[in-house]
Design brief:
- It is a single chain.
- With 169 residues, this protein is α+β, with helices and mostly antiparallel strands.
- Helices cover 59% and strands 9% of the residues.
- The chain contains 6 helices and 4 strands.
- It has helices spanning 7-11, 25-32, 36-45, 60-69, 87-97, 100-155; strands spanning 15-17, 20-24, 55-57, 83-86.
- It has a 4-stranded antiparallel sheet with strand order 1-2-4-3.
- Helix 2 (25-32) crosses helix 3 (36-45) and helix 5 packs antiparallel against helix 6 (100-155).
Length: 169
């Protein structure tokens, strides 16, 4: 645990954007104890280390959506759209920020990404098991209905045969 930063706290900062698990530049800067401006400066100076699958800038719509989810105002704050970093981009940040704290925080962030992946995998396994159980129960329901129908037929009183008048065997 780096300076009281737990995996659970970091996990709350991981967002799903464009189908990728990412972290906002401002959240990373705060965790690293650096300013967002400094973090982004270091990234710009080392642009070759951050291809688009490691880091990308949010669109206007994504930024607005994020702003409305967090109920923040438009006034003040940033003058540009935020950058987000994938797990690989976060790993690359520790190399460009080059501080003891950055390394320690990065280790915690990597643990949070791994924990999240484990959680998602466990969730998928549980969903698969539930679906499997539902299918089995569905098949058993038909079998049980058939058994009850047979039991009803066996337990219902026999139908009396009518004698036909005028006919004697």
């Amino acid at each position: 645990m780096a300076n009281g930063i737990t995996v659970e706290v970091i996990a709350t900062k991981i967002l799903l954007i464009r189908g990728k698990k990412v972290m906002l530049d401002k959240d990373l800067a705060k965790l690293y104890g650096a300013g967002t401006k400094r973090l982004n400066e270091q990234v710009r100076r080392n642009k070759a280390r951050f291809p688009e699958d490691f880091m990308f800038q949010l669109t206007e719509e994504e930024t607005d959506s994020l702003r409305s989810q967090n109920a923040t105002s438009n006034r003040g704050g940033r003058r540009y759209k935020p950058y987000v970093f994938t797990q690989e981009g976060v790993a690359m940040l520790s190399g460009v920020l080059n501080s003891v704290r950055a390394i320690k925080v990065n280790i915690q962030i990597m643990r949070a990404f791994i924990k999240l992946k484990e959680y998602i995998f466990a969730h998928k396994e549980l969903s698969y098991k539930l679906r499997e159980l539902e299918e089995k129960i569905g098949k058993h329901d038909a079998d049980i209905k058939g058994i009850f129908e047979t039991l009803r037929q066996l337990l219902s009183p026999p139908v009396k045969k009518r004698r036909l008048i005028g006919f004697h065997p």
